[in-house]
Design brief:
single chain; Aminopeptidase; three-stranded antiparallel β-sheet; 6 helices; globular; N-acetyltransferase; GNAT_dom; acyltransferase activity, transferring groups other than amino-acyl groups
């Protein structure tokens, strides 16, 4: 009996363990089959061709070494169900809504989906979504994400926010520094960028403190409230 040239597996988006198993077997992610699951849920399509190289399929966003990044003051780790309440609190703050795309507090079901699919998106190389924890107490202090929209340019984009109780202690700067270092050294990115609304001085100071420099102005890039558009300052840090 001859083996088929193409072997395809469809997996649930929230079943990261099964996706890790097929990656180990050399399956590559092809995309989303909308509504293809037994309950009309979206499924991830993985396939392996007979002449694909032996061994695990390559990943562009590796796991964090040892499961997390830390500098002793903060810990940065992939989203965990324990972080859900803190994440919802953060995303509902008016100043966080104002800097989010779209500028609205997401409904709880959307946040739950974000958490359930986060590992799948990491495995897909699309986004590394992480929580910032206070190292001493272990409490959720904020979030940081690396979006990998431009893999062909090896450029990632950061987004982040810190709960008011933990602001002004250098947590955002530390998180940006830890994730940028991981992006350069482990994920082999060449550029990490971040855009801040022109009036968001806290975020701009954070990026400057983390060693980023201004690259330019992005005209009308952010959707503002009431349908308007907002200019942003684009910051970059390069792997040197
Ligand atoms: C922006 C934000 C993440 C900063 O978090 P933070 O943990 O308080 O920042 P840090 O303590 O690491 O401060 C980093 C630098 O910014 C400066 N800074 C922080 N908040 C500031 C403020 N409100 N005004 C002016 N400077 C400020 C700090 O003094 C520090 O600079 P320094 O090292 O030169 O002294 C936080 O204010 C926040 O969550 N804002 C709402 C969401 C947001 O704007 N996200 C970014 C979207 S691009």
């Amino acid at each position: 009996m001859t083996s088929p040239y193409r072997s395809e597996i469809r997996l649930r988006l929230d079943d990261a363990a099964a996706q890790r198993d097929v990656i180990a077997l050399g399956y590559r992610r092809e995309g989303i089959a909308r509504g293809a699951g037994p309950d009309r849920e979206d499924m991830v399509v993985w396939a392996r061709l007979e002449d694909d190289p032996e061994g695990p399929a390559p990943r562009v966003l590796p796991d964090l070494p040892g499961g997390e990044l830390t500098d002793g003051v903060i810990r940065v780790r992939p989203l965990h169900p324990d972080d859900l309440a803190g994440w919802i609190e953060l995303r509902s703050l008016p100043e966080v809504v104002a800097t989010s795309v779209p500028p609205a507090a997401p409904p709880r079901e959307e946040v739950e989906r974000h958490f359930a699919y986060a590992e799948s998106r990491w495995l897909a190389g699309e986004m590394a979504a992480m929580s910032i924890l206070d190292a001493r107490s272990g409490r959720f202090a904020g979030q940081i994400a690396l979006y990998y929209f431009q893999p062909h340019l090896r450029e990632g984009m950061l987004g982040y926010g810190v709960l008011p109780a933990f602001r002004g202690r250098g947590y955002a700067r530390r998180a940006v520094q830890l994730v940028t270092k991981w992006a350069f050294n482990e994920a082999r990115l060449q550029r990490v960028v971040a855009g801040s609304a022109v009036d968001n001085l806290a975020s701009q100071k954070t990026l400057q403190a983390a060693g980023f420099e201004i690259e330019g102005k992005q005209l009308g890039i952010l959707p503002g409230p009431n349908g308007g558009r907002i200019d942003a300052v684009l910051y970059v840090r390069r792997r040197l």
